Description:
The protein is built from 13 helices and twelve strands. It is an alpha/beta fold.
Amino acid sequence: MLLALDDDIFDAFLTPEALGRLAGQARVARAGAQDWTGHPDLAEARVVVTGWGSARLDPEVFARAPRLTALVHTAGTVKAVLDPSAWHRPGFVVSSQVEANAAPVAAHTAALVVLALRGTLGLRERYRRDRRDLFTRRGWVTDPSRGLAGRSVGILSASRIGREVIELLRPHPVQVLLYDPYVSPAEAEALGVTWVASLTELAERSDVFSIHAPWLPETEGMVDAEVLAALHDDATVVNTARGAIVDEAALVAELVTGRLNAVLDVTWPEPPADDSPLWDLDNVFLTPHVAGSLGSELAVMGGQAVDEVLRLLAGKALRHEVDPRSFAQQA
Length: 331
Ligand SMILES: NC(=O)c1ccc[n+]([C@@H]2O[C@H](COP(=O)([O-])OP(=O)(O)OC[C@H]3O[C@@H](n4cnc5c(N)ncnc54)[C@H](O)[C@@H]3O)[C@@H](O)[C@H]2O)c1
């Protein structure tokens, strides 16, 4: 087995406890994230464990790894590390910890959706500036366009993360709306959300509009100027998915007028250009692509990846296997 992770992230993902569970189960060689494709043991390896920044398993590497039957990824999407042609080899399996990674993204998003609905984001700057004025002004707290009760959250895509956000919003007195071309009205009802027929309708009816689609050729730029124009004044766009799903020039044009607000964990390009207005606008809450697993959460994904390896070694089915049939529609 080759462990294809760089030294600077290795310990965060694969703790001594997790590695201890592998001891005696397999011959393990440690290789760098990029170097693993040239490792002397590649021809013998049956399993490769990949991570952030690992070199891609492409057809040329695969040809030099005739015994390789599994790729176990310690992080979320495997699109950067796997050429789908690997599935042509009979019995080849892939495990990704995308579901473990969905939990922190959903927690991060749901927390910010709640703060956006209550108008809390941006208040810190205003309080610092206006001090006593803001403290005594009743208008702020009596404004019915703030608060959770009766407000609406539009979810773009019932993806794994989209579904978890829906779950996390369930205890709150908000109406959750969903647009997803792959989800029927009956499925939406089972999810406890209101199905809407188009992206524009979702925008029209959302106080907070939260993007959870995968970045695919069909979704690139789907949140365009027309969709953004359908949002009512003072609505908030939340994007923890991928920047390229939004027509960013159209979004910036709305944000600079102050008509809309945005919570952006992702942008396109990433990071934004030095002269992008996104850096300085008070109505933009910008973070550097950190909604996914970080800190103590990384070992959760790494430990789960080790469990997957142990299942393979024991001849059991993977629990987090990537399904090649739905790969094209997934993040
Ligand atoms: N900010 C971060 O740190 C972070 C971390 C992980 C994932 N992400 C991003 O979050 C998003 C959701 O990830 P996921 O793993 O939940 O996605 P996923 O793979 O579960 O999404 C697949 C689903 O998206 C929906 N979908 C497919 N095509 C669509 C289309 N044309 N229009 C609308 N919906 C469509 C379908 O319901 C499909 O089942 C992705 O963009 C992913 O890259 C961000």
